[in-house]
Design a protein that fits this description.
The protein is mainly alpha-helical and 187 residues long. It folds into 2 domains: 12-54, no CATH class; 69-183, no CATH class. The protein is 82% helix and 0% strand. It contains 8 helices and no strands. The relative contact order is 0.09.
Amino acid sequence: MTPSRRRWPFDGSTTVIATLGIAAGTAVYWRDGSEKALAILTSDLGLFVDILPKVLAGCLIGGFISLLMPREMVARRVGGESGILGLVIAAAAGIILPGGPYTIYPVAGAFLAAGADVGAAIAFVTSWTLLGYTRALVWEMPFFGPDFVFWRILVSLPLPVLAGLFARVAWRALKARTLSRKSGDTP
């Protein structure tokens, strides 16, 4: 097992979210008083306790997947040199994998850790978002009917692969630009 890079848990996005939360809490406290602010904090604590096991399970699934999938196979099937077929495979995995964001995002992170490229991870997440079968069966079919679901899926079908292709091109351009700056080719 290769050692993973330790990441600082309080990064820029966490700082922004924490700042917004503190500002909103302060505004509620100032406008509505301490009782309302305390009621919101209590409700949020309940939500946190409810979500925590799901997040933990999703992270465990992602961690175990990254250990169970052979890195060479993942890199070959959905790595940077896998071509369009790799993006189609990643998109298909996103379509069939059930679960919410607590499961999907750790699994996408596990794919990256196991050798998938950015394009495949984006195709995976995009296909889950647009084409996930559980959403179509549970929510869309009852509300909109099969014709709507069929056409929505048909129109959305190429989008995960296109998003993955765009991500690959953008990622490679960003890496090339970073490398050229480090080598002193550009100012």
